[in-house]
Every structure is written in C-alpha cells, then in structure tokens.
Amino acid sequence: MAVTLPGLAAAEEVVNLYSSRHYDTDEALYETFTKQTGIRINRLEATEDQLLQRMKAEGDKSPADVLITVDAGRLYRAQSMDLLQPVRSSVLEKAIPAHLREPDGHWFGFSKRARILVVNKDKVKTGEISRYEDLADPKWKGRVLIRSSTNVYNQSLIGSMIAADGEAKTEAWARAVVANFARAPKGGDTDQIKAVAAGEGDVALSNTYYFARLLGSKKPEDNAVVANLAVIFPNQKDRGTHVNVSGAGVAKYAPNKANAIKFLEYLATKEAQEYFARGNYEFPAVAGVPLHPVIASWSDFKEDTLNAAVFGKNNEAALKLMDRAGWK
Question: Residue 2: which H helix or E strand, with range?
Fold first, then answer.
C-alpha cells in the first residue's frame, strides 16, 4: 500500500483522496485541479479492498474526503458499507448521465468502459455472434475464454443480465457458457485476448481498454496480438452493450466536504474528462469530450442505459449464481 498523506493543511486548502487509480495522466489531472483552485491533493493509493477496509477501520476519524475506484460493484460495496455520503450537485447532475451515477448521489461515474467480445477473424464469421446471450449456444463449445467469476467486471455484467433476463434465465445461460469454456478461467482480460490470438479459443470477453492498450501500444509484439482479432459490441439490436464506470464519491466523514465536492465537479469538466478518460483508453462520461484516437472508431455504439447502481447492487447475487453454475 502506497501511503502519501502529508501533514494536513487547513480545511479550505486540501482534499484527501483515497484512490485505486494509478495512471500517469492522473498526475496532470491533480496538478491542474490544484492550479485552478489552490486546493492541494493529498493522495493515498492502494487496492480497492485495502482502501475500503482502511476507511472502515478509521471510522469517523478517517481523513478521507473522496474515494475513487473502478467498477460500480466496488462503488456500491463502499456505499453498502456506509463509507460514502449522498451529495447533491447541480453541476454533477447536469454533466453526468443519470445511468452513470447513483440515484441519491453516493457516487458518480467519470469514465466508461464497455464489456465487449473479442473474436478471431479467421474463426468467427461477421454476424455469427452478436449478443452476450449467444455465448451459451452449443456451437461455441470449447471456444469461449473468460476470466474467473471472482472478477468484479464479470460480476457486474452478470448483474446487468439478471436485471435484463431474470435470475433463472441468467443462471441457465451461465451453466451453458461454462460448458463452452475453452479452458478453466485464469488470468486477466489481456490474457483472454492473447489466448484468442494464440488459438486457445475463438471468442473472449474483455473491457474495451485492454484491447485498446494492445492496439495503441508502441511495442510491435502487442500490435501483433490484435492484428487478426476483431471487437464486437454486443446487444446492439436490443438493450445495448454493458457499460461500467470508473467513479468517485464523497467519504461519509469527509473533513473537507466542500473541497471534495469541488473536486468531483472538476472531474466532470471537459478539460478533466480528457485527462481522466485518455489515461486508460476509456470513454468520457460527459458528452462532447474527444475520444482517444485509438478508440475513436468505437464512438457510435449503443450502450445499455441500465443504472450502474442496479448491477452494482446485483454483484453479490451474480457471484452466487456463477458459483452455482460451476463458474470458478
């Protein structure tokens, strides 16, 4: 755990940020905020679980003003642990689409990532698969590559499917998908992409930025991985592709609440959105912000507008469902 919380300054001059983000462009993001407002950022970086446990242990003595992390499942977990407080801000409510923020203002999404299908162009014909539900088709037996059920991205996807298709139908789907696995789940999204490229399977699930990292890499070996692969945005003819968020909320006992809200409102500015989204090939949450050139061609996909709090809340049920389906 990286801890960088220097001696605290006066409340009007500081905001204490607990963050699981660690992208180089975030440095410019924070520096610009301080330059514009005079508010210094004290940052503590750690994993999501470490941050939540720390905030819980600190209780009402916690110096945390803002928690910033990825995935609505984790944001909902922080909310359910009573670590965040509701915030009303006309700036945030106007800038951030309703489906990307918790309805009562406990947290707000500031960048988006879509969960896509990655396929081998030689093995999968155009139009052969177009929905998440298609992964259950027996024709994909021995061809599907997906990471573990313990991965929060998969839990959120399943949580969105529970909302769309119902729990019983989603569990039947999960059992059928497990029967189609090319191998036991292992590794991260990048590993699934590389496995498709290596011929271990023909279709994988991945967040968009993992594919974009390889596509935009300066390393020829990374570019070679995706050279014969294609991306598919599922469910374009019905509810749209599942979209998750990287987001933030104001800590329950924030000693600098006003500054915390100013920081969140800053993250919703177009200037900050460019830093925030470009750092990881993500989609901005705010409309009208230019995309990273690597993903610009993906700008017109239809996204599922199910509120992120719904599939965040469904994460626990999703994990239990996947366990019952034999998804390890």
Answer: strand 2-4
